[in-house]
Amino acid sequence: MPRTTPDPALPDRLAPIVLTEADGSSVRLGELWADAPRVLVHLRHFG
Amino acid sequence: MRDHAEAIRSLGADLAAIGTGDVSYAADFRDNQAIDFPLLVDEDLTSYGAAGAQQGTLRTFLRARQLLAGARAVAAGTGQGKPGKHPFMLGATHVLTPSGSVPFAWVNADFADNAPVTEVLAALEGGQSAA
């Protein structure tokens, strides 16, 4: 049921977003799947 | 999903996670859980919105299915950690590829909902065979 139809615009929306990693470094999300497929999990919480 | 990081890597992919807490809490979580993939923080929910993640409600939080899942998680030693300032934010799982395709998309419907790992791995296997 919650499996959704992949939105082809999703990579373009996510790619420019810059977030902070747990070590304090900044990461542009698009870098995460630039070289290989990436499973990107949005957690409900840490835990 | 973190228990399947090696299986994901064996398919030529990798894992990354985004949480709603702050950097300090993320660092503690990473160390306590021995997480060896990128763990990012998104306190203002920018990427959650871009990913189409949903907000739950107190009513859905208290559904029997959620309470049962919580009890199982506690019994398994994986109960909920600190909820942070966005306790009703739900999760999502996507597979993104260098070509710009999205072979798997899952937006959690409620607090007990999670993307089936078998389907994530199948999507990665499909990408391998298509390459």
Characterise the protein shown here.
By secondary structure, chain A is α+β, with helices and mostly antiparallel strands. Chain A has one helix at 10-14; strands at residues 18-21, 26-28, 38-42. Chain A has 1 helix and 3 strands, in the order αβββ. The radius of gyration of chain A is 12 Å and the shape is globular. In chain B, β3 (92-96) and β4 (104-107) form a beta hairpin. Chain B starts with a helix and ends with a helix. Chains A and B meet through α1, β1 and β3 of A and β1, α2, β2, α3 and β3 of B. β3 (38-42) of chain A pairs parallel with β1 (14-19) of chain B.
Summarize the structure.
The complex is a heterodimer of chains A (47) and B (131). With 47 residues, chain A is of the alpha+beta class. Helix content of chain A is 11%, strand content 26%.
Fill in the keyword field for this structure.
A: alpha+beta; two-stranded antiparallel sheet; B: 131 residues; two-stranded parallel sheet; two-stranded antiparallel ribbon; globular
Q: Which two chains have the most extensive interface, and how many residues on each? A: A-B, 38 and 66 residues
- Taking all Cα atoms into account, the compactness measure Rg of chain B is 15 Å
The arrangement of helices and strands of chain B along the chain is HEHEHHHEEH
Number of β-strand runs of chain B? 4
Please state the structural category of chain A: alpha+beta
Question: How are the secondary structure elements laid out?
Answer:
The complex is a heterodimer of chains A (47) and B (131).
Chain A (H helix, E strand, L loop, with lengths): L9 H5 L3 E4 L4 E3 L9 E5 L5
Antiparallel strand pairs in A: 1-2
Chain B lengths: L4 H6 L3 E6 L3 H11 L5 E3 L4 H6 L6 H4 L2 H12 L16 E5 L7 E4 L9 H14 L1
Parallel strand pairs in B: 1-2
Antiparallel strand pairs in B: 3-4
